[in-house]
Amino acid sequence: QVQLVESGGGLVQPGGSLRLSCAASGSSYSIARMGWYRQTPEKQRALVATIASGGSTNYADSVKGRFTISRDNARNTVYLQMNSLKPEDTAVYYCNVLWTNAATRWGQGTQVTVSS
């Protein structure tokens, strides 16, 4: 059974850092792309960052220079290092994985709250 397990959300003060992780398991196919998206009650789910199997990355303009996405291919795990966090980064963050058979799966979501 395909499964994504997210961890690392929480409450942090403005200017602080958090690291999210997402581990994928249960598929016999290789992972083509892993990524992070975020959603608030006011906005639709939107791209934060993605990383392809070859390592190429893509970031939303709002997080460039502050967030870094990385992956451990041996562990099928993707990370999102978030630095210089702002209140507008507050959202539920979702992991997404795309496998080479075109199957995709979302994680359960993890809350990130940036507040003093």
Topology:
Elements: E1 3-7, E2 10-12, E3 18-25, E4 31-40, E5 43-52, E6 57-59, E7 67-72, E8 77-82, E9 91-99, E10 104-106, E11 110-114
Distance between the termini: 40 Å
Taking the sheet with the most strands, its summary is: 7 strands, mixed
| Structural class based on helices, strands and sheet pairing | mainly beta
Overall residue-averaged pLDDT value = 96
Short overview:
The chain has 116 residues and is mostly beta strands. The protein has strands spanning 3-7, 10-12, 18-25, 31-40, 43-52, 57-59, 67-72, 77-82, 91-99, 104-106, 110-114.
Q: What do you see in this structure?
A:
The protein has 116 residues and is mainly β. It is built from no helices and eleven strands. It starts with a strand and ends with a strand.
What brief labels describe this structure?
116 residues; 11 strands; mainly beta; four-stranded antiparallel sheet; seven-stranded mixed sheet
